Amino acid sequence: MSAATLTVRSSKAAREWGPALIVAVAVIGGWQGAIAAFHIQQFLLPKPSNIATALWNDRSTLWPAGWYTFKEALGGFALGSTLGVLFALIVARFQRVGSALMPIAIAANAVPIIAFAPIFNAWFDPLQPTSKMAIAGVLCFFPVLVNTLRGLQSVRPQQIELMRAYAAGEIAIYRRVRIPTALPYIFTSLKVASVLAMIGAVVGEYFGGSFDALGVLIRSDAQILDFVTAWAGIVVASVLGITLYLAVAIAERVFVRWAPGGRDV
Asked: Which of 66-70, 172-176, 209-213: highest mean pLDDT?
């Protein structure tokens, strides 16, 4: 890779990420200054410097707990996204089946996830990751379903007519036209689901889970008024959620290079 190419890419990355970094630094600085200026109590809002100290001092506890929860979120993300794509394929191919099943999917998505959490913990062993994966999967399912279905149905009629003029069957039409057209929509939904998966896993742990889980750790720290460590756990959850989001965005750049949205993380 030439030096000119590296320079161009570095300048592009600076333009893309520079404003976000500036805003982040400004928010953290304002947060720290506001606490000192208005004498805000630590139980209401700890200082970012104290949270950073807790992140370092308790790293041997926070990051293993975060990894445990991240694996739950990743399992739920894979489960919910896969079922969402498969369900969308069925709905797009068999419209009568889809018209019967879509109201059920909409009704399930309308239920607040905080209501599902204790139910899934009753269905599965609350100390096992299965219940948390199920909660994360429910959160991921609907956005993936809706966006994938929209992508599959956004094909221009002329493309379908041309494929049929070449005697292409439904499988060939899906493989060569519908699915490639739907890929940008699918990756958009996967980026949304990647964030929701971490939320679902942590929320599920609030209602019971292994002592190795991040949500349980945050809840326990808040109950004993150790809000600094609780905030440090929230930071760990945010970092891991962003990591999963970036992984999906990188995969989009690899597999959907021809689409404008696939060139941006």
From this structure: 66-70
Determine the straight-line distance between the first and last CA of the chain, rounded to whole angstroms.
21
Tell me the C-alpha distance between 70 and 150, whole Å: 29
**Do 191 and 249 touch, CB atoms closer than 8 A?**
yes
pTM of the model: 0.84
The tokens describing 121, both together, are: 């913990």
Q: 38: helix, coil or strand?
A: helix
Please give the average per-residue pLDDT across 133-153, as a whole number. 90
Residue 61: exposure state from Cβ atoms within 10 A (0-12, 13-18, ≥19): middle
The CATH homologous superfamily for domain 48-263 is MetI-like (1.10.3720.10)
Q: Bigger pLDDT: 258 or 111?
A: 111
Res 264: pLDDT: 43
pLDDT value for 104: 76
Nearest to 200 by CA among 61, 68, 77: 77
Listed in sequence order, the residues at least 6 apart from 41 whose beta carbon sits closer than 8 Å to its beta carbon are none
Task: Provide the residue count of the chain.
Answer: 265
Between CA 207 and CA 72 the distance in angstroms is 15
Token readout for 92 is 């797009």
CB contact set of 4 (below 8 Å; sequence gap of 6+): none
| 242 Cβ neighbours under 8 A, 6+ residues apart | none
Q: HSE-up of 180 (CA within 13 Å, CB side)?
A: 11
Domain boundaries, given as residue ranges, for the chain: 1-40, 48-263
Closest CA to 260 of 187, 197, 206: 187
